[in-house]
Amino acid sequence: MLIKECHLDAALKLFGQLTDRGLEPDIITYNTIICGYCSLNRLDEAVQLFEKLTCVQLKPNSITFTILIDAFCKEGRMDDATMMFSKMLEKGPKANVVTYSCLIDGYFKSQNMKSAFDVYEEMCENNISPNIAGRPTEAMQLYDSMLRNGIMPDGLLLSTLADYNLQSSGSQEHCI
Predict the structure, then answer these.
(1) Spatial separation of the C-alpha atoms in residues 155 and 173, rounded to whole Å
(2) Rg (Cα) of the chain, in Å, rounded?
(3) What number of CA atoms fall less than 13 Å from residue 175's CA on the CB side?
(4) What's the distance, Cα to Cα, between the start and end of the chain in Å?
(5) What DSSP designation does 61 have?
């Protein structure tokens, strides 16, 4: 909990003590420190730790990659986010709905609707269902934005939005 309280330096000291005593931190420890760096806008240090992680024979997991992809997206560094996503696809693990959602959100926030839709299509091609649960407003904003930008949503997106609206409203009056 040291990181959540903005005590990253204390957490890093404990991290160093682990290695000094010959104990190898696990992937959860690495992810926690990487996340701490990202939450404090120290993304370059997070990337350095990610690179160190691969040198100590630990494999980054989907959480590791998603933390970094999300941080790059939040900083508007979509090229770096895309490169990290490519590394993930190349080396494993498989991307999940959270990873794809981070990229899609990053592209939308950077006004790159085509890339956002391309990532959405790739996600669907990989049989990963979009997750709009609890986010009907954002889902409808996505739909409206796609239409404004001349992107025709596919049947899966339309079906997902319609199903969600029916489930949440109990009627068909909110359907697209």
Answers:
(1) 20
(2) 19
(3) 11
(4) 44
(5) -
Burial class of 9 by CB neighbour count within 10 A (0 to 12, 13 to 18, 19+): exposed
Instruction: Return phi, psi of residue 104, to 5°.
Output: -60, -45
CA angle 78, 84, 128 (to 5 degrees): 90
The string of pLDDT tens digits covering residues 3-55 is 555 677 787 888 888 888 888 889 998 999 999 999 999 999 999 999 998 88
Q: Report yes or no: 46 and 68 within 8 Å, Cβ to Cβ.
A: yes
Distance (Å, rounded) from C-alpha 20 to C-alpha 23? Answer: 7
Query: In this predicted model, what pLDDT tens digit does every residue of 101-127 receive, in sequence order?
Result: 999 999 989 989 899 989 988 998 999
How many CA atoms does the CB half-sphere of 125 hold within 13 Å?
A: 6
Element (H, E) at 70: helix 62-74
Backbone conformation region of residue 128, classed left if phi is above 0, alpha if psi is from -120 to 50, else beta: beta
Alpha-carbon distance of 13 to 142, in angstroms, equals 43
| pLDDT digits 0-9 by tens, 47-90 | 999 999 888 888 999 999 999 999 999 999 999 999 999 999 99
Burial class (CB in 10 A: 0-12, 13-18, 19+), 106: buried
Owner of token pair 């991307």? 95
